[in-house]
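Q: Translin, please. Structure only.
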Amino acid sequence: MSQIFEPSIFDSIIATIEDDSKQRELIKEVQRELEKSARQISTVLNQVHTNPTKEAINSSVETATNLFRNIRKNLSDLSKLISPELVYKFNNMWSYSVQQACFLAALTEYFRSERLITISELENVLGIKVSLNGDYSGFHITIEDVLNGYVNITSYLSRLALNSVTHGDFARPLRISRFVNDLYTGFQLLNLKNDGLRKKFDAIKYDVKKIEEVFIVTSN
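A: Structure for Translin:
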């Protein structure tokens, strides 16, 4: 009579679970460093709200640009931990932090040139390849992460528009309004299927409205 239950069947499963657990702990360790690096840059850029002068903004951009070397190191360390076949298995562990890095890179470029950062510029800043067509098998930034980073700019700029007026800068809200409207128009061209991203996109129109209200008040 053959044995109904063979305990050795579970040996490989247990080994896989243990390996996954070890891998997740290593990822979490680098992830914490990535989050720390992002917070440092965010703190620097948030200072713009209290002092949105050209000199202060330029100083914040310079400091943030230097701090991105930490982001690049963190992402490089993360990429070394993940073999190509495991990228999508563990992607949810770092996705939010990568989106934040994309947002900070885009915001830094906006302050530098008042335009949207390009994909190639983003790759250069973060030191990681962006997969536009989903055909890149190595560790990469997804286009969804990039778009999430882009869309997060609008809430920051709607707040900045109001703070700029408070500090006597009545020209900046108009420039912000033009930029956000252009960004909104760009997103309208996309056939978004990601529910989370779609909801964020839908929220842009409220930021557009807030900025327009600031502009209308300053014009009267």
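A: Brief note, in case it's useful. The domain at 12-144 is CATH 1.20.58.190 (Methane Monooxygenase Hydroxylase; Chain G, domain 1).
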